[in-house]
Amino acid sequence: MSTEELLAALDDDQRAVAEHLTGPLCVLAGAGTGKTRAITYRIANGVRSGTYNPQTVLAVTFTARAAGEMRSRLRDLGVAGVQARTFHAAALRQLSYFWPTAIGGSLPRIAEHKAGLVAEASGRLGLGADRVAIRDLSGEVEWAKVSLVTPDDYAAKALRAGREDVAGHDHATIARLLSVYEDVKNERGVIDFEDVLLLLVGILLERDDVAAQVRAQYRHFVVDEYQDVSPLQQRLLDLWLGSRREICVVGDVSQTIYSFTGATPNFLTGFPRRYEGAPVVRLVRDYRSTPQVVDLANKVLARAGRHRNAAAVELVAQRPSSIPVRFETYDDDLAEARGVAERITALEKEAVPLSEIAVLYRTNGQSEALEQALADAGIGYLVRGGERFFSRREVREAIVLLRGGVRSTTDQPMPEAVRDILASVGWVKQPPAARGAVRERWESLNSLVTLADDLHATRNADMAGLVAELDERMAAQHAPTVAGVTLASLHAAKGLEWDAVFLVGVSEGLLPISLADGDDAVAEERRLLYVGVTRAREHLHLSYARARTVGGRASRKRSRFLDGIWPDDGAGGGGKLSRRAAARARTDSFFEENPADAELFERLRTWRGEVARTISKPAYTVLHDTTLQAIATAKPKDLRQLAVLRGIGATKLEAYGGQVLAVVRGEDVDVEAWLSR
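^ that's the sequence the OP posted. Answer follows.
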C-alpha cells in the first residue's frame, strides 16, 4: 500500500489525525469512530514518510488487550518496532533497566494484590476489617497513590476531593493506614503496582542522565483513552516528554467511568490550554453501531442537561438502518434472566454467534440468575473478570503441547495439526452437553482452535507462528475469543464490542446504583449506561425487573436515564426523580431485596428521627439511609464491628455508637437521656 492508498482508507477526520505528524494533537473520539485506526495509520504514515523512527515511538494505553490490538494493527500495516504498551508495562520495563545503576541491586518483588498488605496494616492499627472493608481500603490506598496524595496531606486533599469515610474510618485514620501500609511493604521488601510509576517518576526527577536517556529513546508519544489518565500517569508522561511537544492524545469524556480510581478527564479537556495552538480533531462518524443504537446513545447523553461536558462528541451513524432497540419489562429477576436466555436462543438461530453476544450489568451480583438461566437453556457462557485465560490449567497444558508441535515434522496444515494435538487433552469437535467446568474447559481449548484457523487464513501462519502469537498474547494477557456468551459488568465491558448486547437491570437503585450520591456520581452512572449502549453493533436489548424475587413487591422503577426514551414514556419512571423520590426508590429496593432486615432498618430510622428532633438537625445529618441499611444488614455486635461500616466515622461512632448497638440488640433507647450523658 502506498502512502496515498494508506490515507485514502480513512475518512476526512481520521485522515486529519493521520496527516498531523508533528507537534501536539488532541483527538476527541466518540465510541466506534475508529480512533485506533486513526492513530495506528498516523504512526504508519509517520514511519513511511521518514518523520518517525519506529523505535522512538511509544504508544501508551490502559489495557494489555488494547496494547496488543495496537501492535497487531501496526504489524498488519507493515510497521515493526513501535512500542505499544500500558503505562505500567512501559514504566516497569524502564524501571527494571535503570534500577541497578540508579538505585543498586535488583528491583523488589511486585506484590500482585494489596489486600494482604492492607489487612496487615489495618490489624496493626487495631482497626480490624472484613473482606469487603479490606477491598474498600485497598481502593482508597490506590486512589491516594495515583492521585499523588501522601499520608501527611491525605486528610486535607480527601476532604477537598469529597472522599467519604472508607469502611467507617475517618480521614485521619485512613492517613495513618496509608503510612503503616508503606511500612508493611518496606518490611516485606515488596512494592505495589503504583510504586512502579512512583519509583520511575522519582528516578527521572533525581537523575538527569536517566531522564536524558529515556527522552533520547522515545521522541514521539501517543496516549489512548486519555480521559482515564490519573495525576500520577500524567506526571510520568510529563517527565517522558520533558520540554518537547511531540504528543498525540485520544479520548472520549463520555466514557469517563473510572473517576473512583483517580482517573480524570481534566487532562483531556485542558489539553488545548496546556498546549497552546494544538489542533483538536473530533471523530464523530460511528462505524460500529446501527443508527438505532447511535440514536439511543446520543439521547442518553443529551438528557444529561447542564452536566453534559462540552467536549462530548455527538455520534453520526454510518451503518445502514437496521432493527429497532428492544425494551422489555419483566415481573422479577428470574423472569428477566429467562427472557434474556430465550432471546439469545433466538439470535443464535438467526446466525448470530454466541461469541458475539454479551449480557452486561451494573453489579457482579446480578450474574447469578443469568448464569443459571443460560445453563438451563444449554447456552455456553463465560464470565469476564474471572480467572485469566492464560492461567487456566488446560490452556497452560495445551500451549506446552503446541510448543512440542513446532519441533515435529508433519505435512498436515497447521489447523489440522492443532486439532490433533488438542484432542489429546480433551478437545472434541462438538461442544459437550455438560455445563460448568467441563464446558469451560472445552471453550478454552476451542478458542485455541479458532485462533489457529484465523491465523492460518489471514497470515498463512504455521505452528511456529501460532506459538509466537500465543507467547505475545500471553505476555499481554490478550486472550483469544471464547465461543460463548460474555457476561460482564459495565466497567469490564469498556473497550469491547459485540453484535448483540443485553443491558439488564436498568432500574433505579442499580443504574444509577443506590450508592451514587451527588450530581457527579450520578453523571458517571449515566456515562456507564452510555458505554453499555455503545458496545452494541446491531442488536440492543434493554430490560429491568419490577421485583427482585418471584412474587416480591413490584417497587422498582426504570432508570431515570431513560426518561423520554423508554417506549411507554412515563409508565416506568415518570420523569426525573427528585432527591426525595430517589431516596424512596432506594428504600423500596432495600425492603424488597432484604426482607429479613427491614424491621431493624425501620427501628433504626425511628431512632434516628428521635435523635434528629432532639438535636434540631435534619435526619440525614445523623446517619444516612445507606448507613442504616448497612447496619441493618450487618447487625454489628460491638463498636469495632460497627466502625468498619460505611458512613460510621470516629465522630459519629463516639456520638451514636452505643445507641445504635442498643437498637440492634432490640432495646428501647431513651434518646434524651443518652444524649445528656
